[in-house]
Amino acid sequence: MAKHDIITIGASAGGVEALIVLLGGLPADLPASLFVVLHMPPTARSMLPTILGRSTRLEVAAAVDGEPIERGRVYVAPVDNHLMIGDGFVRVVHSARENGHRPAVDPLFRTAAEVYGGRVIGVVLSGTRDCGTAGLLEIKRQGGIAVVQDPDDALFSEMPQSALDNVPVDHCAPLARLPPLLADLVHQKAGRAPAEAQAPEGIVGEKVEAVESEFTCPECGGNLVRSGDGATLNYKCKVGHRYSPESLEDEQASALDAALWIALRTIEDTAALARRMAARAAERSQTHMQAHFEEKVRVAEERASLVRRALLGTSEGNGTSAVPRSKRAWRLPPTS
């Protein structure tokens, strides 16, 4: 009978430190293949395989699309590509972002569960938001094992805490205890997935068919379709962008943030142009036109003040901090 020889690992903020400890504690003869997704900016130059390779006796390399899956090897998701798993081979795909990330944890977990079922171990480490929760639940549905770093032990607790809140986790342990735990689990016989691959009772509701939602995709503007329930509830657009409710909220906040900065710049340009037109009218003694453009300046300045207060989160007239418009603080635009 097959054993748990497919280990999928997801991390975000604080993940480099966690991965160094985790991989560094695994034996060189571990009879398993490991797959790692760490959230990274799309423009980053990743040194992650090199960094992790220094900490472990296992072979570590950036994953290459189509390469065979081998035991004793760590496959790391390349920058700006999803890492997925096929039947006996690795898939590296530049497809739509999920939860605002590429690479994202859920595609790795989901494809591993679909192909290898009960042979899969899913591991969620330090990170923010809830990426990995839905994928970890799919691993459980297919008979695999769910392992989560103790949130109290993680540099960033949101990802492991979300998994604990929504998935029937098999093991939750501090980082230092995860390497011997995984080494032990690898040698255990893999169980079979439930006949209907249903989530355990009390974790999620009944399956919900995909239906049109009232929301649009923050990235491409397409209509979002709602599907799933509970931990698997997600919104997906036609081209493949996928969001959990929490990720959708964050992405909408980012889109609103960008739109407000564009609005502010446009309004200030309008005011500047109206000032020039008013000055030009004054030079020509065109009193009526001067008053017209001065009124435009006044209206534009009022609008700019409203948008600026929304962006900077300050109370009117006193410069003090106001209640945030969302749980995320407004960010200043990039300097370049």
Provide a concise account of the structure shown:
This protein has 336 residues and is an alpha/beta fold. It folds into three domains: 6-185, Methylesterase CheB, C-terminal domain (Rossmann fold, 3-Layer(aba) Sandwich); 211-243, no CATH class; 247-312. The protein has eight helices and 13 strands.
Q: Can you describe what's shown?
A:
The protein is α/β, with parallel strands linked by helices and 336 residues long. It folds into 3 domains: 180 residues, 3-Layer(aba) Sandwich (Rossmann fold), CATH 3.40.50; 33 residues, no CATH class; 66 residues. Helix content is 35%, strand content 17%. The strands form 3 sheets. Strands 3-4-2-1-7-8-9 form a 7-stranded parallel β-sheet, with helices on both faces. The longest helix is centred in the last third of the chain and has 39 residues. The C terminus is likely disordered.
Mean pLDDT: 87
CATH classification class of the largest domain? Alpha Beta
Q: Can you tell me the CATH superfamily of the largest domain?
A: Methylesterase CheB, C-terminal domain
- Topology-level CATH name of the largest domain: Rossmann fold
How would you sum up the major sheet? 7 strands, parallel
Q: What is the radius of gyration computed over CA atoms, rounded to a whole number of angstroms?
A: 25 Å
What general outline do the C-alpha atoms trace? elongated
Strand elements, count: 13
Poorly predicted ranges:
195-207, 315-336
Shape-level CATH architecture of the largest domain: 3-Layer(aba) Sandwich
Helicity, in percent? 25-40%
Q: How large is the share of residues in beta strands? A: 15-25%
How many separate helices?
A: 8
**What string, H for helix and E for strand, traces the elements in order?**
EHEHEEEEHEHEHEHEEEEHH
Order the strands across the largest sheet as they lie in space: 3-4-2-1-7-8-9
Number of domains: 3
Alpha-beta content class: alpha/beta
Taking the alpha carbons of the first and last residues, their distance comes to 57 Å
